[in-house]
């Protein structure tokens, strides 16, 4: 893939700044392609060509924090990064993913519900591969891929939003439940 043209790069930065500003002021509900285009000083067509739709724009807003999170669990310091025992890494990963999801819950909720399988691919695949590898090291007799799905399921943005916002479940209770699930796997 070639380098991005400088004008395209500037437009992307303007668009993402405008979108982040709108989300900060009005929440994700206020994020419309027309308003973002107007705030960024670009045509709506440019926005649609670049991002596809609102969920594509949401993913672009999520991207920077996502890259930092993935870097932390792939090459950062232990226990999240390499160097700690698999059980400690899994627990650290699940706690960090809980925090990461809560930090951008509305954007993730929009992105993950844009289509039937919108949650899967990209970041999910990276999380899944990471957990599959760690579970496989820890408990080789288990179906590590299915266990990884089970560990990730409670952190789906729609479920987490429902539990936290509609049911009043505190985030510490979510972490405790993930710990209990992990303890069951380790037993």
Automatic annotation (TrEMBL):
The keyword Nuclease does not apply. This is HTH tetR-type domain-containing protein. Residues 32-51 bind DNA. Keywords: DNA-binding. PROSITE patterns: HTH_TETR_2. GO terms for molecular function: DNA-binding transcription factor activity; transcription cis-regulatory region binding. It comes from the Bacteria. The lineage of its organism: Bacteria, Bacillati, Actinomycetota, Actinomycetes, Streptosporangiales. Residues 9-69 form the HTH tetR-type domain. The keyword DNA-binding applies.
